[in-house]
Every structure is written in C-alpha cells, then in structure tokens.
Design brief:
42% helix; 6-stranded parallel β-sheet; 394 residues; alpha/beta
Length: 394
C-alpha cells in the first residue's frame, strides 16, 4: 500500500493538476484521482483545477466551440491559482473542451513548466480513438485532420469534428504543442510512436504507464471469464458476444459495464451481464475469474482494467493490436488474438478453459509484472523524475 511520506530525500513539490472531467466517468478520471492521491501520500502539495463537462448542458454550442479553442475563464482562474499556490509544475490531463489549450499559453507566460499526459489520441486524431469503420485509422496522423471532418469521425458530426480539427490545427500552427508543453507523458512505447508520427517533438515525450494500488490476490480456484468496461463498439463488445456463442464454454463470460451496445447482451449465448460494478466488486470478480478479456478493436492507450487484472493475478486475453500487444506478452502474461476475429477469440477462450494450470502460471507472471512495472512506488518515482526534468528544462 502507499507509504505515508517519501523517503527519497527530495523536497516535496508543489503541483497544480488540471483536468476536464467527462460527463460519464471513465478511466482517465480514475487515473487522475489515483495520481493525486499518490502525490499527496508522498508529502507533495497538490492543488486541483477541474472543469466538468456537465456544464456543457448550460451553454450554447457556439459558446462551447469557442471554449474549445480558447477559454478566458481558464486563464483567469488558473492565473489566480498560480499566484496563490506558487507551484513548481503544472500537470495537465484532459483539456477538452472547457479548459482548452489556453492553459498552456498561460503557463508559458508565467514561465511555469507543463507536463501533459496523453490519455488518448486527440492531438493526432479529432475523434481521439484512431478508429473508423470499426478498424484502426491513421488518415489524420501527421497531416491536417480534414479527413476526419469529411467523415464526421467525432460523434458522426462533421460540424463537431470540425471544431476539434480546427482547435488542433490552429494550435499546431501557433506552436502550442511544440513549444508550450515541456514534457509529454505517453502511456507506452506504442503510443509514443504514434504521437511522434503525428508531429509531437520526440525529445519531449517520455513514457510512464498507469498504476493501481492493490494487495496480492488469494489463491482461490478460478472459473469463468471477465470483461470490464464500457459497452461500446470500440471496446469490441460485438466480437466478444459472437466469440462467446462460438466457444460454447461450460462456464460464463461475465460482462461488467454499461453503454450504448448493452442491448447486444440480451439473450446472448454464454454471456452473463453484471451491469455496472463498483471497483471493489470488480476486483473481487477479477480474483475469481480465469482471465480478463480485452477484445478492443481500437488501439487503446493503456486500459486501466489491464493493470488491475495484472495486480489481481489475472492473465489477459487481448486483441493483438496497439497498446494491448505492447503490454500483454503472449503466452507469458496472457494470450493475444487477431483483432476483430471472433473465431480466433473463441479458440483462445477454449484453450484457456482447457489449460487451467498454464493460465494460473500466467496469472502469477502477471502479478510479478505488476510489482515490477505498475506498482505505486515505481510510478511515484517515475512521475517525480518527469516533474524534475520538466523543471530543469521548462
């Protein structure tokens, strides 16, 4: 568990953490909360600046579009916070749409180093998922994002996609991304490579994964498979439903989550819907399941459920795609299958069911991988090193 105070000998830092919360709570929100708790547990002073996307219900679309490009409210409120708190560094997470890139210009004017975590692909893809027609798409990577506008990639709307594309393009031309962010955090090397291909400066992008703080699991017998996440197209829920039907397993595939594709679970063969679950309930399910299934058809960045699974000694059956194939070692910490291929996923599910001892060994390896790479103590050291480097070069 978390230590109370850092014993590194370094002075505690003063950090402003800025984050635009989503209307539906997701992994990014959980990651931000966990990092803030981690920093405070090690004696650092943290001031939080947050905007909430529920505010969008109270303003016009025109005003929301303007806020996406530049928010005077952000510069005013964060400027006051900087004056009062006197931070060493500003750590920005999501800025879309209410915080806006104006926060980078304010920090630059105040000579305050900026660290930006790249939780999604927004800076190289207006839709942020790099997904079109249920397949990975890199049409806008390293180019002006007009193709995304043409296809209406964000919520099926050319107008809304145009607002995002305009924001990214305008700030690209103004040098915001190149000159007003001191260090970027990519969540793994695969994502770092896509951001470099998209035009972000390679010498400013470091990698640091997500983490969770969980004790070792027990040694109970395991059965069944588990999916945890939003029930949406990009998460591969359609692939999972088809694979469960093809596999004809004697034990269920448990599905924890809610979303627009939830109707697919109705009467689906081999699927048992759990609905939304609290984190503690998810962890309990992870300690009982045979494997976590990650059938995403998009690249992902760093699914929080993946590191939660590793921490709970749970091997992962994942798409051989993007960040997932960079994190899951096939045959060591889980199994990989061809993206979008329900037949291949069904084969992997059946193999996992028929080889419980091998899956148990993979679960032990997953927990060892967690302790070596994804624990709170490891993550704290990485995060502080990034802050200190930003302070030297900011």
């Amino acid at each position: 568990m978390l230590a109370a105070i850092s014993t590194t000998g370094d002075r505690p830092l003063r950090i402003i953490v800025a984050h635009n919360r989503y209307q539906q709570r997701g992994g990014e929100d959980a990651v931000v909360e966990a990092e803030v708790d981690l920093l405070r547990a090690h004696g650092h002073r943290v001031a939080e600046y947050q905007r909430d996307n529920h505010h969008l219900e109270q303003i016009s679309r025109a005003k929301a579009a303007l806020q996406t490009m530049w928010s005077t409210r952000t510069t005013r409120e964060v400027g006051t916070l900087i004056d009062d708190f006197k931070p060493d560094v500003l750590h920005v997470h999501n800025t879309f749409p209410l915080i806006s890139p104006s926060i980078y210009w304010l920090a630059h004017k105040r000579q305050l180093p900026v660290v930006q975590t790249l939780h999604n692909f927004r800076l190289v893809c207006p839709q942020a998922l790099m997904l079109r027609d249920d397949k990975p798409c890199e049409d806008c990577v390293g180019k002006l994002p007009w193709r995304g506008v043409q296809h209406g990639c964000y919520r099926g709307s050319r107008m809304q996609t145009g607002v995002l594309a305009g924001m990214v393009t305008a700030h690209r031309m103004a040098g915001t991304w190149q000159h007003h962010v001191t260090r970027y955090i990519a969540l793994n090397d695969f994502c770092r490579g896509r951001f470099i291909a998209g035009g972000l400066p390679a010498d400013k992008i470091v990698t640091k994964p997500n983490f969770v703080d969980l004790p070792p699991p027990g040694d109970e017998a395991r059965s069944g498979f588990l999916f945890v996440g939003r029930l949406s197209i990009e998460k591969g829920i359609r692939v999972l439903v088809e694979a469960a039907s093809l596999a004809k397993l004697p034990e269920p595939v448990w599905v924890a989550g809610a979303g627009p594709e939830s109707s697919l679970l109705t009467a689906a063969h081999g699927i048992s819907a759990l609905g939304s679950r609290a984190p503690e309930q998810v962890y309990e399910a992870m300690q009982q399941a045979r494997a976590l299934v990650l059938p995403s058809i998009s690249y992902e960045n760093f699914p929080r459920t993946l590191v939660e699974a590793f921490a709970n000694g749970l091997p992962v059956i994942a798409s051989r795609l993007g960040a997932m194939q960079a994190i899951v070692e096939d045959g060591i910490t889980g199994l990989l299958f061809s993206p979008g291929d329900a037949n291949d996923l069904a084969l992997k599910l059946n193999w996992a069911y028929a080889n419980p001892e091998r899956m148990r060994e993979m679960g032990l390896a997953a927990r060892t991988r967690y302790e070596r790479l994804y624990s709170p103590e490891i993550n704290h050291g990485q995060l502080v090193a990034i802050y200190q480097e930003a302070m030297r070069f900011g």
